[in-house]
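Lab channel / #folding
Pinned by the channel admin:
"Please post every new chain as: sequence first, then the structure tokens as a reply. Keep commentary short and put observations after the output so the thread stays searchable."

First post following the new format, from NK:
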Amino acid sequence: MSTPSRPSGHEASTARERLVWMDTTLWRQARLRAGEYGLDRTGVLGALLSAFTEGRLSIEAPPQGALGPTRNGVGRAGCRTGPLPDTVWERADVARRRAGVKSMPVLCELLLRGFVDGHVSVTLTVTGGVIPGTTGMRKGAVA
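Reply from TO:
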């Protein structure tokens, strides 16, 4: 008997908060933009990381001079995510190294910048159905 596959970003794994150093103005803008769609910023970040890892989203690594603790004259501060699955984070970390991106905070900032600026969109898809008179749901996926 085979086990149904889970959609990307919803792997059964340990999830924990992450501290990423980034532009705090961008961090707040990402929260507001996600909220416009009724989404949570951490969920959006997880979806962006998964899409990047799976090759559905491409980025161009910025020049090395733009990768320090102060990028383009803007200081960075620690921004705490909600729980992100370890598998999503670890896979994205491998993919960002292959792409030549200096660190996970830089990757997160690039992805969220694309989302805030409207270059990247995130869509919530729900499938399945509720079976009346039961406490369970039909097999389905939330992505």
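NK: Residues 15-116 form one domain.
TO: also worth noting, The chain has one domain: 15-116.
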